[in-house]
Each structure stands twice: as structure tokens, then as C-alpha cells.
Amino acid sequence: MIVTIDGVAASGKSSVSGGVARALGIPYVSSGLLYRAATLLGLDAGLDLGDPGALLAHLSSHPVRLEPLAEGNRVWRADRELTDDLHSTRVDKGVSVVAAHPQVRAWVDDQLRALPEPFVAEGRDMGTAVFPHAQHKFYLTASARIRAERRAKERPDDIPDIEAALIRRDELDANQIAPAADAQVLDTGPMTLDEVITTILRAVRA
Ligand SMILES: Nc1ncnc2c1ncn2[C@@H]1O[C@H](COP(=O)(O)OP(=O)(O)O)[C@@H](O)[C@H]1O
Ligand SMILES: Nc1ccn([C@H]2C[C@H](O)[C@@H](COP(=O)(O)OP(=O)(O)O)O2)c(=O)n1
Fold first, then answer.
1. Largest CA distance in the chain
2. Distance 134 CA to ligand 1 centre (A)
3. Per-residue model confidence (pLDDT) at position 154
4. How far is the CA of 62 from the centre of ligand 1 (A)?
5. What's the domain count of the chain?
6. For the Cytidylate kinase domain, which residue ranges apply (predicted)?
7. Which of 61, 120, 125, 165 could form a disulfide with 28 if both were Cys (CB 3.0 to 4.6 A apart)?
8. Domain span at 99
């Protein structure tokens, strides 16, 4: 079984996916972390993030491994854990450029499709491009302001700056942001985190 949870930046995908996965007793897979890892490695190597050939060559000589666990995902490059360095404003600013390359998307999708079921997969295009046959599909939305207020609890930046950055990233991610036609769309703005998780579990278990 595969459950897909897609949505825009800071809509609650990771938190909701983790809660749903824990309740179901299965791992969850955060596809965005692979895009973030590719971005971090490119930045650290001083590469042009607009050059997919250079990025893929670097990634082939520095293989990245995603470790999906019920309590969260861990990302490794060889024996160096990258996880804690992936959610930074520096990576946020470059990741949409990296994620726009079809070659990088194929690099991510190949790793996701090799994972053994069952799992919850969260990202942008899990229910459309990567796992179109998933049994349960959900898509999370919320206003940019609400998402910025939530993200502000994790970042040192001001809410207006975060909101502008989220809107910008939504624009940059537009090609992969549309929900699957058969996904249940949830506006998480008026809902608590637990209410979103409960709503999804009720649908999965129905
Ligand atoms: N429905 C909700 N109500 C309140 N806070 C939420 C809700 N969903 C997520 N959050 C919080 O918002 C922040 C961003 O959520 P996250 O899961 O990181 O989003 P995403 O993975 O889509 O970027 C986190 O601090 C999370 O705990
Ligand atoms: N399946 C995916 C997942 C993420 N991406 C891109 C779009 C996002 O800006 C970045 C980072 O994704 P991530 O889910 O970590 O970002 P947020 O947690 O939503 O802020 O990667 C994508 O294009 N396709």
C-alpha cells in the first residue's frame, strides 16, 4: 500500500505524513529531502545549480541515501548525515532550481520507486508522476500567510519575509504542484495538525 501526501511548501506535509505513518505503523518517505540533499551537495561543492550535468556527475560520485523511518527520514552521503543541514534558507533558495531539472527528478524518482511498500510518500508529485496508482492520495493546502506563521516557529526570519519566499517557491514549483485528479484536497488552514492526521486516517481506514 502507498499513501501519497502532496502539497505546497509548509502546508504540513512532513508533520502530517509522520503522524499518519506512525499511526499506521509504516515508514514515511520525504521526497523533498532528496531534492534538498542534491541542492546542499551542489552548494557545498560550489556547483552551478542550473547545470544538471554537473549536479548529476557530483551525485554519482557522492551517492546520497534516504533512510525512511517511522520517526522521520534521515539522509546520508556516505557516512556523513545530512539531515539537519537540509532545512535552511540557503537550501530553500536553491532547491527549486535543482528540482526543475528532469534529470534530477529522475534521480529522485528512481530512488523512491525502489523503496519497498508499504509507506507514506510526501512531496509535490507523489500522487501524480511518481505513484499514480497509489491507493490513497491527499493534497494539503493553506494560505501563504498561515503557512508563513507556521514556518516562522522554525526559522529566524520575519513572517512577511517567509511569506514572500513561500509564494516565490510556489511559483517556481508550479510545474509539479497540481494535485492528482483523484486526490482528496484538504485546506489545513482551519484545522489543527491532529485534525488533519485524523481526517486522513479515517479515509485510509474506511
Ligand atoms: N494543521 C496545522 N496546524 C498548525 N500547525 C501545523 C499544521 N500542520 C503543520 N503545522 C506546523 O507547520 C510547520 C510546517 O509543517 P511541515 O510539516 O514542515 O510542512 P511541509 O512539510 O509541508 O513543509 C511545522 O512546524 C508543523 O508542526
Ligand atoms: N516531490 C517533490 C518534492 C519536493 N520538490 C521540490 C519543491 C520544493 O521547493 C523543494 C523542497 O521540498 P520540501 O517538501 O522539502 O519543501 P517544503 O517542506 O514543502 O518547504 O523540492 C519537488 O519538486 N517535488
1. 49
2. 23
3. 87
4. 31
5. 1
6. 3-205
7. 120
8. 2-205
